[in-house]
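Continuing the series of single-chain predictions for the mutant panel. This is the parent chain; the variants come on the following pages.
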Amino acid sequence: MRFWEQVVKRENPILGKGIELGARGGRPGILLCRAFRLSHGCSDVEPIPDDTRKRLTSLGLSNLISYDIADASSLPYPDETFDFVTFKSILGVVGARQRYDKIEQAIQEIHRVLRPGGLLLFAENLPQGGILHRKARHWFVPWVNRSWRYLTPG
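Parent structure:
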């Protein structure tokens, strides 16, 4: 998040309207909202959990953040809607079960809904890590092996 804040400060874009994709818990969106007092939307393929809504209310942010149900590979927004798009760790699930085409569709959709000069802030999981990290994923995140496709650089 600190890196994203530095990028925003350095690029100094006009951040009027944005969307966080895959925002089940809304954490990147909440952090951006708190750091820059941005009004933006969050979306996920499922309804946003009640605990997320309660957290927003307790933080005094419920009036700045709205929620939609949206699939990243087929976004329900007009072209050039957003000044910024954020996401964290969604491409792996979008491309699960060897659906590389869905990852490409999601990237095309993100490009489509960003205004010219818009800002994309994202963080994505990569497969490489130390042996302990890979074992921990296997032990503590059982769905990873069934419904996740780790991306590889290059």
